[in-house]
Amino acid sequence: MKFWKNAGVLLIAVSVPFFLMMTAIRLLLTPLYPEIEYRMPYFPPDPYGFTLEERLKWSKISIEYLLNDSDLSFLANQKLDPQTPLYNERELKHMLDVKILVQQMITVWSILAGVYVILLAWAWRRGWMTDLLRAFSWGGKGAIALILLILVSVVLNFNALFTAFHQIFFEGNSWLFRYSDSLIRLFPLPFWRDAFIWVGAFTFLASLILIWIEKHTRNISR
User: Where are the domains of the chain?
Assistant: First the structure.
């Protein structure tokens, strides 16, 4: 039994930083984020003519594609006008790559959430809750260290961080596009910079809550 307890503690401590970041990303994958982001006073207008309403329309359709079970034709059939597709073939290929990555992330996120529930229920019955909460606290501290590193990178050189992220998850230069392409017009660099900041802020706050819960519980049990 001690082995399984230690294994559960290790799993939680190591996985919590990634679980919290995945939770933040999942929250971004809703129409609410573009609704807020596009209305920021510093957000750049589209030099090729997308209005706010058009950006909201096409960004929501793009997010819907990432989350639904449709194949690539869902996006390929979207038209800016009868002769102009929303995305060209290169953009469609990238969106397919992003969809695969997002779906894999959601699967891992869901599995981890289920494992956490099972471990917490088991710990409650076995009297190991203190150990499990301590593991969540350790994970929260690890997440804070990781997020501070990421946020410092955002401030110092976001372009390098953004490039490194894409080089890790996508092949070659498949993620590079022209400024006139719809993907860049809908999702320019400030969109992603603010997304990184949001993920960092959410993860930081959630980590503090985990640390506080463990500390508060420990004080009560004394």
Answer: 2-221
